[in-house]
Write a structure and sequence with these properties.
This protein is an alpha/beta fold. The protein is built from nine helices and eleven strands. α1 crosses α2 and α1 crosses α4.
């Protein structure tokens, strides 16, 4: 009697959905070699090649496409059995990556609503830079990420397009100084755009602080020692929009994009993504009102 290995089938589906072994391994929390061994075992059992490895992006062979249809149904039935007959449905962890400057104001409400619906699911919130989050997502280390970008990647979805604004200390005057003192993290995508805008406007500038620590930037700006730029509506309580009246250049806007790991696109991940979409939709609606 020959039986298909559901673990191997799950790895096969993950590799197809993720477009490669490396990313699938991250989603499955396995090593690349473990995933590769499971695919090899599946191919040896069936006596066919299920993956076409000749292209840059791994894709199923003709036989693999047929197997994929069966595999999805078998895994869905397996998951349904566990969901109905155990009390551990929707247990586990989702890794959510969000740039630190857009954690507020939407994400806290999203996390609260998600916990109410999925109390057994843990959301591991990673706050980092967009470039790092995109890299971690590509390796399968994040299930869902938000980014702030000029454009939207092929797997992304734009939730909002917001203007960038200059921010400083409440009632501060650092924005009037020349050269204009700037405070940015070393890997901040907003930094180059602000510097280029100042150069085009002929306004001299210098870096007051060049740090990888968000708190250090916030402390310098809130002390009225430098200015910073953020997406409109994302300012912290220690900063406010600079009332420069046109004395500082306008800044290019950014898109807030959503990326969802396809290999783990289950009910809980889909629900979290929907809450994020709804959070930004409500935010935009309140701004328009």
């Amino acid at each position: 009697m020959r039986n298909l290995d559901l673990t191997a089938l799950r790895s096969f589906v993950a590799v197809v959905d993720a477009g490669g072994v490396t990313r699938a391994a991250g989603f499955l929390n396995l090593t690349q070699s473990a995933v590769s061994m499971q695919i090899k075992r599946l191919e040896e059992l069936l006596g066919i090649d299920v993956l076409d490895r000749s292209a840059r992006r791994v894709a199923p062979t003709a036989a693999g496409e047929q197997l994929l249809s069966y595999a999805r149904r078998m895994l869905a039935l397996n998951d349904e059995v566990f969901g109905r007959l155990t009390h551990d449905a929707f247990e586990g962890e989702i890794v959510l990556g969000v740039p630190h400057d857009i954690v507020y104001p939407v994400i806290p409400g999203v996390l609260k609503q998600f916990h109410a619906s999925f109390p057994r699911m843990k959301v591991n919130l990673i706050s980092s830079f967009t470039l790092k989050l995109l890299d971690e997502f590509a390796r399968g280390e994040c299930d869902v990420i938000l980014t702030t970008e000029d454009q939207t990647g092929p797997d992304g979805e734009t939730l909002a397009e917001l203007p960038m604004v200059w921010v400083g200390a409440p009632g501060g005057s650092a924005w009037k100084q020349r050269p204009l003192r700037l405070a940015y993290e070393q890997n901040c995508l907003f930094r180059a755009g602000a510097q280029a805008a100042l150069d085009r406007a002929g306004i001299p500038w210098e870096m007051a602080v060049d740090s990888g620590n968000t708190r250090a930037i916030e402390a310098v700006v809130s002390a009225d020692l430098a200015v910073h730029s953020m997406l409109l509506g994302c300012e912290s309580q220690y900063m406010e929009r600079v009332p420069h009246g046109g004395l500082l250049p306008e800044l290019p806007g950014k898109r807030i994009n959503l990326y969802i790991g396809q290999a783990l696109k289950g009910p809980a991940v889909a629900a979290l993504a929907d809450l994020i979409r709804s959070g930004y939709a409500a935010r935009l609606a309140s701004r328009a009102a």
